[in-house]
Amino acid sequence: MVLGIATILFTITFVYTYSYPQEGYQRVPSQSCSGLGCLGEGQVVDKEYTLKKEDQAIKVTEVSCGSMKREEMTAQFGQFVAYYFDRSFGKGFVCAEVVDEPAITYADDEFKGIDSRDLRIEYIGYQYYQEPTEKSVLFNAHGDIRITVNGGVLFDGDDIYNTSTKYTFPEGESFIEIWYENKLHVADFGFFLWEPDFESTLDEVAQIVNSTTHPIYYAGVYQPATDSTVELNLPDTAQPYILMLASNERSIWKLTGNTSAVSHVVITTHSSYGNRVENIDQSKVLYLDERGSNELGYFYDSKPSCNEANDQHDGYCQDFEALEVYYQLANNFSSRPIYFTGDYNPRVLEVPGELITSELLFKRLVEAKENASIYDPGSEQCHNNGRDTICPREAGQ
User: Fold this and answer.
1) Could you tell me the residue ranges of all domains in the chain?
2) Is the pTM of this model over 0.85?
3) Quick one: which of 50, 138, 243, 303 could link to 192 by a disulfide (CB 3.0–4.6 Å)?
4) For 378-397, how does the pLDDT look when each residue is reduced to its tens digit (9 = 90+)?
5) For 2-194, CATH number?
């Protein structure tokens, strides 16, 4: 077995000479307790399991997350069995389920009562390819992560944001195991196998968008409320428009209504991979790469929040990226109407929302400062956010 691994954004080639695991493969948890797999006080959280393989599927019998009873589950090749653990003292394995993607996002104890800081997941699954196939392997994690393919370590590390690499899967079956232990109050993990070179640069996206004069309908969220999904209700209009979707955490954008007027969908990527849009011709979808996404920025609220001055600070405005992002949109995508809808963690958003301008956004900033008693008339023309100075200039300048 030869495994060549290099730094991120680099092709990995894996060659193996045996099928792994064999029929009836059984993994028994390690009795040591250091790093991944530990509950503390010597408790081991690794799951013992035995796999049955049948017609490009695996079968396991475990406590189901749906019924909370032991039952047989079947994961087709391409799917994964997810084992969920609670690392808090005296607990351990909670339940298992079959998932299409190894991915989860939630806060606090919103999933099966497991405090996100104590969450541990193990995923197992098979991929099958008729010939050696290169894939973009995308993953992100708010914690420790280990990924193995056919027994060889593909990645072992922690606190990974928007990490991508290329991996050539061999002909036939490949067995994947993933271990993830969350650290933060928000659990955010994803592992995705996408086609190589699926992303576009900002220049490439701008060239396509600027070949039209269509308005931009911009939807922004921090994270979806549930199941990583945001429903977008589209307007019943015949006027073509560009739909731009932005979020901090992984989001699945589910379009409802009339999609025929959507000429292109631009999806930006910030701290999490795996964003996608449903119910639209995928040839219309452009995935902006991380560099371009960071240059544009994102926002989910067009009204700023400002704090009054106290002993610790002179007064400041937070969560106000709208004006900066507006200028970036106007500068990169020529002058065109921009409409906005968004929220922190919505379930549903209505498109197009409100028409925004630099004058409107700057006026709201001044009003927020006045309400917080930190407005300085001398700064009426410009505002410094600690990084950049922004002014109420005309779009596109």
Assistant:
1) 2-194, 199-390
2) no
3) 138
4) 554 555 444 444 554 433 33
5) 2.60.120.380
